[in-house]
Amino acid sequence: HITYNHFFGGEEVDARLMTERWSEYGLDDSQWQTVEVAEVAGKLEASIMPPMRLQEVYKPDVSFNPEKGVYTYDIGQNIGGIWRVRVRGKAGTTLKIRGAEKIADEQTKRMLVEEDKLSYTDQHGTTGLSFTGDVFSSYTLSGMGTEIYHPLFFYSGFRYLQVDVDHPEDIESLEIEGVAVYSDLEPGGSFECSDEVLNRLH
Question: How far apart are CA 75 and CA 92, in angstroms?
Fold first, then answer.
């Protein structure tokens, strides 16, 4: 059901194409493409680093619906991670999700207001929220109750989010949150001081 993916360029998913129990024994895979065996040079070795995992969850501090089919969010913290959507609606409805680390033309972070939204120009547009070119994910609903989606093979830096819905009248509910992703290292120490800004940076 993943129709496009690029580690730095986004992901497109059509949930209508998902095969139930595709990873379980007994599935009829007669229509699947055959596996091609490739010659690979080198030696496979285990990684010495812990795996990257989903970590802290950030709910939006504010959210807006500045125009029909456009929804914007501010999770209050710049993170490297993924967005996770819970949505219920009609099959075939598509969400286009973008993230941004700052509001365009502004060097300092501030709380999102209703007039802010993502620019559709390339490489940090001059209006709205900045983002990198074509980095987004799209999700087409299956229509099978409440659906939960997050990118599986790409992540991005962001604080602000925008969701564009092609047929907003077909959406019953829509929620989004940010989830930090980083290596699952054991803490080696801690830091705290009287300056709250430094504490947040740490």
Answer: 28
Q: How far apart are CA 168 and CA 52, in angstroms?
A: 34
Per residue in 98-137, pLDDT (tens digit) is 988 877 666 667 888 888 876 554 444 444 554 554 578 9
Does residue 31 sit in helix, strand or coil? coil
Distance of CA 147 to the CA centre of its chain: 15
- The DSSP element (H or E) to which 158 belongs, if any, is strand 156-165
Can you tell me the distance from the alpha carbon of 145 to that of 105, in angstroms, rounded to the nearest whole number? 40
Q: What is the DSSP letter of 94?
A: E
Task: Compute CA distances 97 → 106, 114, 182, whole Å.
Answer: 22, 17, 21
Q: How many CB atoms lie within 10 A of CB 178?
A: 28
Strands 171-183 and 70-89: antiparallel
* CA 31 – CA 13 distance, rounded (Å): 20
pLDDT single digits (tens) 176-190? 999 999 999 988 888
